[in-house]
Specification:
By secondary structure, the protein is of the alpha+beta class. It has helices at residues 26-42, 48-58, 102-113, 128-132, 137-145, 150-153, 156-166, 185-188, 190-195, 204-210, 212-223, 245-257, 270-277; strands at 71-74, 79-82, 90-95, 228-231, 238-242, 261-266. It contains 13 helices and six strands. 20% of the residues are buried.
């Protein structure tokens, strides 16, 4: 606990409700909750940047739990940018009794691309090898030792979608990244316009062929009226977003009827997230 400048023995007990190997970020969320709990228990506070640094060292997806709400993650996911929140929506989380190994999913993705997944941009299709071709090795070592700041490393797609979400309606004009610029779409349903950008979970390409039953779960959600459905992380959980509680309840009933456990919940805005996270223990 060097960051808190204290020494001592800490015992942490976790009552885990999320399934193991479900792709829901349970372990990462637990780690962030433990960090914040230590601050409160010791009546000390770590600065925001220091919190993010510690979180990124522990795991790539931890920093997003220190932001909450709608977040843009780039790099390995450890570099996060808070975006204007999408509205809270009804959500169905399907929990099939299947365990998907995240390391194995990454290996399959690597084989699919014939190169490490983290070295290829999902959006541009360009690999880091092409970026490094012809570069002086000394320059590459220096670049690794002295990383550029966050804004310099943001992908072009990240810059465009961040600007798009922050801007008002604009005239229809296609962009190279595929980000739709339809006027009025965001005001009526920002999620639908976001889906039209072509955002999808790349893990579906390697997980669904091995576990076709997960593809069927996604199809059930879509047929039940989900505005967007996707594998969560590397799976096996699959979620769907709905525009009404009635449609969400109906989708959950259909999943349960087919033998798949399903939970109806709702997404949280950033404000709601922090209100719940910092709520006093009962």
């Amino acid at each position: 606990m060097l960051a808190l400048k204290v020494r001592g023995r800490v015992v942490i007990e976790i009552e885990k409700r999320l399934p193991v190997q479900g792709g829901l970020g349970g372990a990462s969320g637990n780690a962030v909750a433990a960090l914040i709990a230590l601050e409160r228990a010791l009546q000390k506070q770590i600065s925001g940047p220091e919190r993010l640094r510690i979180a990124a060292e522990v795991g790539s997806d931890l920093p997003l739990f220190l932001v909450g709400g709608t977040v843009l993650g780039v790099g390995r996911g450890e570099e996060v940018y808070p975006l204007p929140d999408l509205p809270a929506m009804e959500c169905v989380v399907a929990l099939p009794e299947i365990a998907v190994s995240t390391p194995n999913a990454f290996l399959e993705w690597d084989r699919l691309l014939k190169e490490p997944a983290e070295l290829r941009s999902t959006w541009t299709g360009k690999s880091a090898r092409s970026h490094m071709a012809g570069r002086d090795p000394a320059d590459l070592r220096e670049e690794k030792l002295t990383p550029s700041n966050g804004s310099d490393r943001m992908l072009e797609f990240g810059r465009e979608i961040s600007a798009w979400l922050n801007a008002g309606p604009v005239a229809s004009k296609p962009r190279r990244s595929g980000v739709s610029a339809r006027g009025g779409g965001r005001a009526e349903n920002p999620l639908l316009d976001l889906v039209r950008t072509g955002i999808e979970n790349d893990f579906e390409k390697v997980v669904f062929p091995k576990h076709p039953e997960l593809r069927e779960v996604k199809s059930v959600l879509e047929r039940a009226g989900a505005k967007y459905a996707s594998l969560s992380g590397s799976g096996s959980a699959v979620y769907g977003l709905f525009d009404s509680r009635a449609r969400a309840d109906n989708a959950a009933k259909k999943l349960k009827k087919s033998g798949t456990r399903a939970v109806v919940t709702s997404t949280l805005t950033r404000r709601q997230y922090w209100k719940k996270l910092l709520a006093p223990s009962l």
